[in-house]
Write a structure and sequence with these properties.
The chain starts with a helix and ends with a strand. It is 10% helix and 40% strand. It has a single domain, classed as Exo-inulinase, domain 1 (Jelly Rolls), CATH 2.60.120. It contains one helix and 14 strands. Strands 1, 3, 4, 6, 10, 11, 12 and 14 form an eight-stranded antiparallel β-sheet that branches. A hairpin with a 7-residue loop joins strand 7 and strand 8. By secondary structure, the chain is mainly beta.
């Protein structure tokens, strides 16, 4: 009986440890579940129905860009590496723009205080400090002028998948496009916030939004 009791206690302890491990926080998060917009909310200019602009089909987010605004997480984050895998379905003059919004602050409005890793065709990697946000590299510049990407763009042709990575560490933000460091800003006035994806005319798709916490 003694050995049976000991075996039972060991098994119970092991099951409790396994349960604790399953509840332990992870450093990697998939922000898009491939099915719907769980964990996300919308802010659209003049309050149109978001479903007329944003949809999920075949495990892919589709934004047709017809209404201006953004999709954002319901949870805020700091110190992370965010990867967005996306592609343009098509581009046209004044219909070629989107962006990743990092450190997005409330209130929701078009446009919010945040840092944008530009997604415009031909300009992915420009970094905008928006609605009063600031950084060392932008001081003295016009509010609508980005800190421009370094060198030639590193984007793939329309229709091919790109990986737009935004690395936020303390008060520094880096933009990495398809594995190449394109830009970096320092001493940013924002160090945490929600994460958003911009709708601004472009017809594009997203197949993955993943986040790795750095701390």
């Amino acid at each position: 009986m003694r050995f049976s009791s000991i075996g039972f206690c060991l098994a119970l302890a092991a099951s409790r440890l396994a349960a604790q491990d399953s509840l332990a926080p992870t450093n990697h998060l998939e922000l898009f579940n491939g099915r719907d917009f769980s964990g996300w909310t919308f802010c659209m200019k003049n309050n149109p129905d978001p479903a007329q602009t944003w949809s999920v089909t075949n495990n892919v987010i589709h934004c047709n860009g017809t209404a201006i605004g953004y999709l954002r997480t319901k949870q805020d984050y700091r110190d992370y590496e965010l990867a967005v895998e996306w592609r343009f379905v098509k581009v046209a003059p004044k219909a070629d723009n989107t962006g990743v919004l990092a450190h997005l602050h409330l209130p929701d409005q078009v446009w919010p205080r945040c840092i944008q890793n530009q997604g415009k065709s031909g300009h992915q990697g420009d970094l905008f400090v928006m609605a009063g946000a600031e950084c060392k590299e932008h001081k003295g510049m016009d509010a609508n002028t980005p800190v421009a990407l370094r060198g030639e763009p590193n984007e793939k042709p329309v229709g091919e998948w790109n990986t737009n990575v935004t690395v936020c560490s303390g008060s520094d933000v880096k933009a990495i496009i398809n594995g190449k460091l394109m830009n970096e800003i320092t001493q940013c006035s924002l160090t945490n916030g929600f994460i958003g994806i911009q709708s601004e005319g472009a017809d594009f798709e997203i197949r993955r939004i993943s986040l790795d916490l750095l701390k």
